[in-house]
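User: Show me a protein chain along with its predicted structure.
Assistant: Here is one chain, sequence first, then structure tokens.
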Amino acid sequence: MLSHRGTKRFSQAALEGFNSQEHWLAITGEGSPLRGPGVIHTVPQERSPVHTASHTGAMIRLAQLAIALGSPPWTAELARVPGALRTALGLRPQIIPALDRLQFGHVVHFVGSGPAHATALEGALKLREAAYVSAEGHELESIFHGPLISVRAQDSVVMVAQPGAALERTLDLAAALHEIGATTLAVGPSSARISAAVQLETPALHELLAPIVNVVPLQWLALEVSRHLGVDADSFRKVGRYAAAQSKFTL
């Protein structure tokens, strides 16, 4: 189980359903109320409900767990992740001037293939949580089979440009979006190969480790968009009708 804070009622109830603490693992933040030999901590609890470091830390713990259980071909590459993260964190200055080229009054689409699909989903989620912008995450191939016809010239599209089998298909998408007139942003090791208005190049890693790094520029994007729009990224919109809406359920 993965839980940022370890306080959600269904997460706790799920663990309580096991007869023995030896049959589960929980990846959660430091200071979590979850207890037992299966608890693996990530990072100190974040102030913001728009979790970023906790998300990245959980992915690293999953990678470490995979190595402990087996011998994945990317074992040696895990040691390169901290340096790659530092490089990705350094992309923030490139993101700020790019905001004027994107249109946030319309839908922002995020697209990725294979493991990068998870990056696209997380990028869309962060933008919604931090800046209240309408965003959608798509699997690369599936966007050709319907969703593409709803993309408008006023929309923006963020493509995860990962080297490998899906890169040529990503180039196809970029060409199609150019014809539509949508503003595009490419993030990933192969971003320079994508004809996009904004290119954010990240270090190349095995595609199963790449989501740990490629999500960082998208986290920066969510933060900078919130500032650009004058939104408090840490508020989780707990005011007015949204506060009333959130009072109708318990997490």
